[in-house]
UniProtKB/TrEMBL annotation:
Pathway: Metabolic intermediate metabolism; (R)-mevalonate degradation; (S)-3-hydroxy-3-methylglutaryl-CoA from (R)-mevalonate: step 1/1. GO terms for molecular function: hydroxymethylglutaryl-CoA reductase (NADH) activity; hydroxymethylglutaryl-CoA reductase (NADPH) activity. NCBIfam families: HMG_CoA_R_NAD. Keywords: NAD, Oxidoreductase. It catalyses: (R)-mevalonate + 2 NAD(+) + CoA = (3S)-3-hydroxy-3-methylglutaryl-CoA + 2 NADH + 2 H(+). It holds the Pfam family HMG-CoA_red. The keyword Magnesium does not apply. The lineage of its organism: Bacteria, Pseudomonadati, Bacteroidota, Flavobacteriia, Flavobacteriales. It comes from Christiangramia crocea. Belongs to the HMG-CoA reductase family. GO terms for biological process: coenzyme A metabolic process. This is 3-hydroxy-3-methylglutaryl coenzyme A reductase. Its EC number is 1.1.1.88. SUPFAM superfamilies: NAD-binding domain of HMG-CoA reductase, Substrate-binding domain of HMG-CoA reductase.
Length: 438
């Protein structure tokens, strides 16, 4: 049994690796060299990555792919996508090309309000608390001026502060509910700093109230933190075209395709088991661009799925209909993203990804990311209701199987040629590879 380790963070990187090898990898030097193989030769660049987190021992690569031909609001974009799943970038590119020939994607930000809360307990007269809040509201704004000054200069800041009585749901529980405009930044640090200051002022002011009982003076702050549920920080993306223009080959008519597509979306709207997978496909596109642009994909995931169940049932993020012979496919989702702050000016590849996107504002990035999600969902549904998903997926996965079996470049070329005319399954690939090698 490995014993707990003390002072691990103070060990050097090499010492951490030695400790790991000794305690968990049977001192296997091959494992050690795998870790070291991913170190960057450029010490400065490596140090930058080491310092992003604690206890870094190596880098963890993800491929960065490009999905070109995204026509969004009349402008062409090439999307940088960081993702490990074969076929996602190919599917995005295919959907982008398809819609670029049909007017492209339209996207617009509905609002970009962010939310934060101070959660606290107040044991006493609700009216006295309300009066205190009304009195100190200007003080709350004043107290955060040093924090908000720059944001206000950029046109953002605190939009409003509300006192919310939650005592019907939880004894003595209240909130300061705050709306923020964080402009082009995701704003997590800004929001949390403001909230912590509000909490401090609120607590101090309660203590000072002469007409408060000792319990009322003892207002208890539980926590101050932004919310990743941002239903009002929302963006809409859509595509539409006449039904007749939807079919690319003779295997299915535009009308049949559109009807089957709408049906597939309706199933995801009412059936949670399907909705989760359907939305996972949306997130394939969203996460890949969110990650490439240095944004917090966990926050986006949490917020998007909460939004998908906002009415009490988990449902599809996308919607589709046919009206007067026109097929329309759209999505509205919350996305709290930033193009300044955080990793955006630190990580060289993030900086590059933002350059590739022509240095978008926070709102423009929301539009681009929403489009990536809609395109990915379109590509997935298009495969699902026509050829099935495995055809395209296995084509991309073929390379993974070949790499797993150390196929040479010559073998790869021959196998790709062979499987353009044969069905790809894991066993058929192995069988063919063995046949070729014998
Ligand atoms: C796979 O990563 C995503 C899909 O399952 C999405 C979907 O089923 O709509 C193909």
């Amino acid at each position: 049994m490995t014993k707990p380790v003390n002072g691990f963070s103070r060990l050097t990187k090499n010492e951490k690796i030695e400790w790991l090898a000794e305690h968990y990898l049977k001192s296997d030097q091959t494992a050690v060299s795998v870790l070291k193989q991913y170190w960057n030769e450029d010490d400065k660049l490596q140090k930058l990555h080491d310092e992003f987190i604690e206890n870094t021992v190596t880098n963890f690569y993800l491929p960065l792919g490009l999905a070109p031909n995204f026509l969004i609001n009349g402008k062409y974009f090439t999307l940088p996508m960081a993702i490990e799943e074969s076929s996602v970038v190919a599917a995005a590119s295919k959907a982008a090309k398809f819609w670029s020939e049909r007017g492209g994607f339209k996207a617009r930000v509905i609002n970009n309000k962010k939310i934060g809360q101070v959660h606290f307990l107040f044991r006493g007269d609700h009216e006295k608390l309300r009066k205190l809040f009304n009195e100190i509201e200007p003080k709350l704004y004043k107290a955060v001026e040093p924090i908000t000054r720059n944001m206000v200069k950029r046109g953002g800041g605190i939009l409003d502060i509300d006192l919310i009585d939650k005592t019907a749901d939880l004894e003595n529980y209240y909130q300061l509910f705050v709306n923020f405009d964080t402009r082009d930044s995701m704003g997590a640090n800004f929001i949390n700093s403001c909230l912590e200051k509000f909490a401090e002022v609120l607590q101090e002011e309660a203590k000072k109230q002469k007409n408060f009982t000792p319990e009322e003076k003892d207002l208890q702050i539980i926590m101050s933190i932004l919310s990743n549920f941002v239903p009002e920080c929302r963006v809409r993306a859509e595509v539409s075209c006449p039904v007749d223009e939807l079919c690319e080959d003779a295997s299915i008519s535009g009308k049949e395709f559109a009807e089957k597509f709408v049906q597939a979306v309706k199933i995801a709207e009412i059936e949670p088991y399907r909705a989760v997978t359907h939305n996972k496909g949306v997130m394939n596109g969203i996460d890949a661009v969110v990650l490439a642009t240095g944004n917090d994909f966990r926050a986006v995931e949490a917020g998007v799925h909460a939004y998908a169940s906002r009415n009490g049932n988990y449902t599809s993020l996308t919607h589709a209909n046919i009206e007067d012979g026109v097929f329309k496919f759209w999505m509205e989702i919350p996305l709290a993203l930033g193009t300044v702050g955080g990793l955006t000016s630190l990580h060289p590849l993030v900086k590059l990804a933002l350059d590739i996107l022509q240095r978008p504002s926070g709102k423009e990035l929301m539009e681009i990311v929403a489009v990536a999600g809609l395109a990915q969902n379109f590509a997935a549904l298009r495969s699902l209701i026509t050829t099935g998903i495995q055809q395209g997926h296995m084509k991309m996965h073929l390379m993974n199987i070949l790499n797993q079996h150390q196929a040479t470049e010559k073998e790869k070329a021959e196998m790709i040629e062979f499987f353009t005319h044969h069905t790809i399954t894991h066993s058929s690939v192995i069988e063919q590879l063995e046949k070729m090698r014998s």
